[in-house]
Amino acid sequence: MPTETSATRDMYLTPVGVIRSSLSNPELKAGVDGIELKKGDEDVRARVKKIADLVSELVIDDRFDGILEGVEEFSHVLVLYWPHLIPDESRSVLQVHPMGRKDFPLKGVFSTCSPARPNPVLVTAVRLLSREGNVLKVQGLEAVDGSPIIDIKPYMTHYYRPEGVEMAGWMQRALEEVEG
């Protein structure tokens, strides 16, 4: 049972910077009814490849001078960001069709990577290409231009690659379809 001092109090996050990207709209459209994949001429494989190759900038506020010191020693970082274009009403969504695909059964949002969730904090592991002052250039970030950055952490394999990881069958199927 949650206590007043833990699970029920309000939390406040202060963005540390902003994402600069050529993406202007999210690939997944979130709303009160869940999520759906953005329609378009490109197939899903082409979209995934486009995102994997996409170079974005993480612009850290000047008030955090020194916070990036040493990050360039890592090849990859985790970017935690807020999907600012997701409407507030999508925060009440509890179940979604994963990836907006109606051929997948409804699943609880905590078993998916859906941006429609009570606290839409998104996280992506990306390749760190360079650092110039307070700007990181990264590759493979599926975040739209203007998304607030919550945090950046170095990606370390011993923390994020536990042994014996199992995935849901629907997720394995989706990955196989995307990767070919």
Automatic annotation (TrEMBL):
GO term, biological process aspect, one: methylation
Signal peptide limits: none
Native organism: Desulfoluna spongiiphila
Keyword S-adenosyl-L-methionine: yes
Entry superkingdom: Bacteria
NCBIfam families: tRNA_TsaA (TIGR00104)
Protein name, per record: tRNA-Thr(GGU) m(6)t(6)A37 methyltransferase TsaA
Similarity comment: Belongs to the tRNA methyltransferase O family.
Alphabetically ordered keywords of this record: Methyltransferase, S-adenosyl-L-methionine, Transferase
Pfam families (UniProt xref): TrmO_N
Domain TsaA-like: 13-164
GO terms for MF: methyltransferase activity
